[in-house]
Design brief:
By secondary structure, the chain is of the alpha+beta class. The protein folds into 2 domains: 167 residues, Aldehyde oxidase/xanthine dehydrogenase, molybdopterin binding domain (Aldehyde Oxidoreductase, domain 4, 2-Layer Sandwich); 138 residues, Aldehyde oxidase/xanthine dehydrogenase, molybdopterin binding domain (Aldehyde Oxidoreductase, domain 4). The chain is 31% helix and 25% strand. It contains 6 helices and 13 strands.
Length: 331
Amino acid sequence: MKKRGLGVGCMFYGIGFGFSRQDISAATIEICEDGSVIVRSGEVDYGQGSDTIFCQMVGEELGIPYDSIQLITADTFTTPNAGPTTASRVTYVTGNAMVKAARAVKETMQSVAEDILGEGDLVFMDGEIRSEYPDKRISFRDLAKTCHARGVQIVETAWQDITTKDVDPETGQGDAYATYGWASQLAEVEVDTETGRVEVLRIIAAHDVGKAINPSNVEGQIEGGVLQGMGYALTEEIVQEGGYLKTGSLGDYMMPTSMDTPRIDSHIVEVADPDGPYGAKGVGEPALIPTAPAILNAICDALDIRVTELPANPENIKRLILEKGKEEEAS
């Protein structure tokens, strides 16, 4: 027999290190004589899409295509310290440093452009610096060349510090983090009572990300997080015996693959954070946290059995079903 159930998991998660732990990041932006832009950051993009987001931010500020920007990351010889790529902090902390550095460079270039054009209230867009008059404009490349010819420095490093105060040691109260991510997920599962196998049919995931700088990236983060949460809930297990690790390889550690991916409906909720770059917050870890609770609640809804140990694999689910049957017979 197969039974279906629905379950909900909700969470809030602190962005950054919090609890008075130093949380600082930096970025350097240099405009070369030919108008090319070099951005340096100590952050590492290992799949979350931060390289694209950084280039988008700089491109937005300078009015140039994001894919024309050269980004150098994680080179301890040339890049400024950006802190570790962890704690769902990269967009929130390093993104702010990027925007600050871009605006500082822009301010320098704008002063030169105002002198050349004899106009204020200039706009950086489409590779040009424009005034309200059609004949009063200069290309970004020509402006960069002029700045270099005049000996104007157009390289800036900016820092962002979101270190927070610790909570009250007596009461545990206070804002331990600079901001928080929020999410709710709903899981629909089908449980085979004969085998104990749990199939996730659908996940609906709603995440407050502040502002989605790159919606496709955000959806990818959510989908990847859901799949990780599924593995945590249903298959991934490290077995130890007598102090020895019995899970010897990834051949024994069962991670879900693309073939196991259910339908995932991602809903991006944008509630701009006043201190985030363009209102953005982090979405890395919040994407996976609600998934396992939602799945376990759905199993409980289907079987009226509360799973308290992970993973909820067929062996463990079958055992719980049999234990419940014996209890019902005894009563």
